[in-house]
Amino acid sequence: MFKGFKEFLLRGNVVDLAVAVVIGAAFGAVVDKFVSALINPIIGMVFQADSLDGALKVALPGGGALAFGEIIGALINFVAVAFVVYFAFVLPMNKLRKPAEAEPEGATQEELLAEIRDLLAQQGGAAAAAPAPGNGTPDAPGHRH
């Protein structure tokens, strides 16, 4: 029972997930400060409100209100998170990685088949006597009936 638990804990995915959760929580705090210290003061200037949560509220006749400011605030928060994640993490990590080596162009299927046919012909196999595909044989894909 403990052996299975130990294997579960030592899997790479579990450790990676734990690191992601911790980094995500720390990153959430950075984004919250970014929004509260930079975005909200600008919004307060423009909309005469402390934050987007209080801006652009439309009162409903039966009570309550539509809070468009909260929706806009959530969208700004999402864009801020995506911006910081991309420019602080993704872009630098992509630059640190080695550029992917271009795979050499391989031979086409027809070239490989011709090469196999030629090798079989050199070995004296039965393929040497068979005509090449497309040379008028009934089984050839381009044969007209």
Report on this model:
The structure is a single chain. The chain has helices at 2-9, 12-47, 68-96, 109-122, and strands at residues 57-59, 65-67. By secondary structure, the chain is mainly alpha-helical. It has a domain at 2-96: Large-conductance mechanosensitive channel, MscL, domain 1 (Non-ribosomal Peptide Synthetase Peptidyl Carrier Protein, Chain A, Orthogonal Bundle), CATH 1.10.1200.120. The chain has a two-stranded antiparallel ribbon with strand order 1-2. A hairpin with a 5-residue loop joins strand 1 (57-59) and strand 2 (65-67). Helix 2 crosses helix 3 (68-96). It is elongated. The mean pLDDT is 75.
**Which architecture of one domain would the CATH scheme give at its second level?**
Orthogonal Bundle
The helix fraction, in percent, is: 55-70%
The first-to-last residue Cα distance is: 69 Å
The residue-averaged pLDDT reads 75
Shape: elongated
Q: Remind me, CATH topology of one domain?
A: Non-ribosomal Peptide Synthetase Peptidyl Carrier Protein, Chain A
Q: What is the percentage of strand-forming residues?
A: under 5%
- What's the β-strand tally? 2
Sequence of strands across the biggest β-sheet: 1-2
Specify the CATH class of one domain: Mainly Alpha
Structural class: mainly alpha
Report on the biggest sheet.
2 strands, antiparallel
Q: Can you say what the CATH homologous superfamily of one domain is?
A: Large-conductance mechanosensitive channel, MscL, domain 1
Low-confidence stretches: none
Number of helices in the DSSP assignment: 4
Radius of gyration computed on alpha carbons: 33 Å
The topology string of helices and strands comes to HHEEHH
